[in-house]
Write a structure and sequence with these properties.
The chain is of the alpha/beta class and 395 residues long. The protein contains 13 helices and 12 strands. Helix 9 crosses helix 13 and helix 10 crosses helix 13. The structure holds pyridoxal-5'-phosphate.
Length: 395
């Protein structure tokens, strides 16, 4: 891929956690569905059969890679929809099952907005639904004893992300599932594995969960494609009704190209996971150590032993992250200064706040996220440019 901005500086893309560049093999696999294979996969002629075959092949591959049965895979238009379907779907079914009873959803306090806002909206819209948040420690790891205190027979859903999007901290999902089974046996467990999936074998890292969200564009696949794995026996109310697609769990004509893109990207990630985790983890260490050494008054948001290999989240004291993002962009370095709202402005980080990072430190926080296209040259350029940019802003 030509990674130069025309007429501009060389592109150093360190924002894979926001969206990873599409993999060539994904583009190739999706191409026929933009042109030759255009039938409606629910139809009855040869074009429809070709589309349906591709869709079901993609479903088989996604299921195999996530260690699920094909009928447990629900294709969605990305991670946000998968999260919303898990939250509203489980809570909607629970409220119908036991009308009038309290229905509790327990989440971590550091979930992505797609989960937190869905929980908030569900508690506003669905009668009797109450949302409880469980805090994290200073590395962003879930407080399991507080989780245990929140679990009882009223809990219908426990939702804890497998890895955090801002700081990259991986959560102990095995413990979350074990606690839920013993203290809230009626509850189902959902994990948002959108950030974890490029790095972790989700079935190993989140054993026994009932619902799993993934998104293609974090894996080098297309935007607007994802899936929710729904274990057999999990009651789920559909968000979209209409044509009855996805076994009545998600109506709407399928995005066949998106499903093929998701399956191809997941397969590529699974094939490369071990070598890429080692390669990218070493580059991330080089970047983090280099910046910690070269820049005064910088701290790492979380201990690296808890963090995904691609994440490097640093807090530069006395720097405005928005200004630093702009300055780095001018030098061709793409990073993220935290969650942006629809207007593009950066919002205060609820994740850093939950970890106890003081607001003046959090306001200088930058996420460098490395991934499948990152090279040693990218790290070298960042190490050459970032210290000077920080000094300029502080100066
Ligand atoms: N969950 C997490 C942890 C994410 O990082 C994101 C995207 O940033 C999402 C959900 C939303 O996924 P999508 O962009 O596919 O809607």
């Amino acid at each position: 891929m030509d990674r130069r901005t025309p007429g501009g500086p060389p592109l150093t893309y360190l924002d894979h956690a926001a969206s990873a560049p599409m993999r060539d093999e994904v583009v190739e696999a999706m191409a026929p569905f933009a042109a030759r294979v255009f039938g409606h996969p629910s139809g009855h002629h040869r074009q429809a059969r070709a589309a349906r075959q591709a869709l079901e092949d993609a479903r088989d591959r996604v299921a195999e890679l996530l260690e699920a049965a094909p009928r447990e895979v629900v294709f969605t238009c990305g991670g946000t929809e998968a999260d919303n379907l898990a939250v509203f779907g489980v809570l909607g079914a629970a409220v119908q099952r036991r009308p009038g009873d309290a229905t509790v959803v327990v989440s971590s306090s550091v979930e992505h907005a797609a989960v937190l806002e869905a929980c908030r909206a569900a508690s506003a819209r669905l009668h009797g639904v109450v949302h409880q948040r469980v805090g994290v420690d200073s590395h962003g790891v879930l407080d399991l004893s507080r989780l245990a205190q929140s679990l009882d027979d009223d809990v219908a859903l426990v939702t804890v992300m497998l890895a955090n999007n801002e700081v990259g901290t991986v959560q102990p999902l095995g413990d979350v599932v074990a606690l839920t089974r013993s203290l809230a046996p009626q509850a189902v467990v959902h994990t948002d594995a959108v950030q974890a999936a490029p790095w972790l074998d989700v079935a190993r890292a989140a054993p026994g969960v009932d619902l799993v969200s993934v998104s293609a564009h974090k894996l080098g696949g297309p935007k607007g494609a994802g899936a929710l794995v729904v274990r057999e026996g999990t009651e789920l109310e559909a968000l979209f009704v209409g044509g009855g697609q996805e076994r009545e769990r998600r109506a709407g004509t399928h995005d066949v190209a998106g499903a093929v893109g998701l399956a191809t990207a997941l397969a590529a990630v699974a094939r490369e996971r071990e070598s890429e985790s080692a390669r990218v983890g070493a580059l991330r260490d080089q970047l983090a150590d280099g910046l910690l050494h070269a820049v005064p008054a910088v701290t790492e948001a979380a201990d690296r032993k808890f963090v995904l290999p691609g994440h490097c989240h640093l807090c530069f004291a006395g720097v405005d992250r928005e200004e630093l993002v702009v300055l780095l962009d001018e030098a061709g370095i793409c990073v993220s200064g935290g969650a942006a709202c629809a207007s593009g402005a950066l919002e205060p980080s609820h994740v850093l706040a939950a970890m106890g990072v003081p607001a003046p430190i959090a306001s200088g926080s930058i996420r460098f996220s490395l991934g499948h296209t990152t090279t040693a040259d990218d790290v070298e350029r960042a190490l050459a440019v970032v210290p000077e940019a920080v000094a300029r802003l502080r100066g």
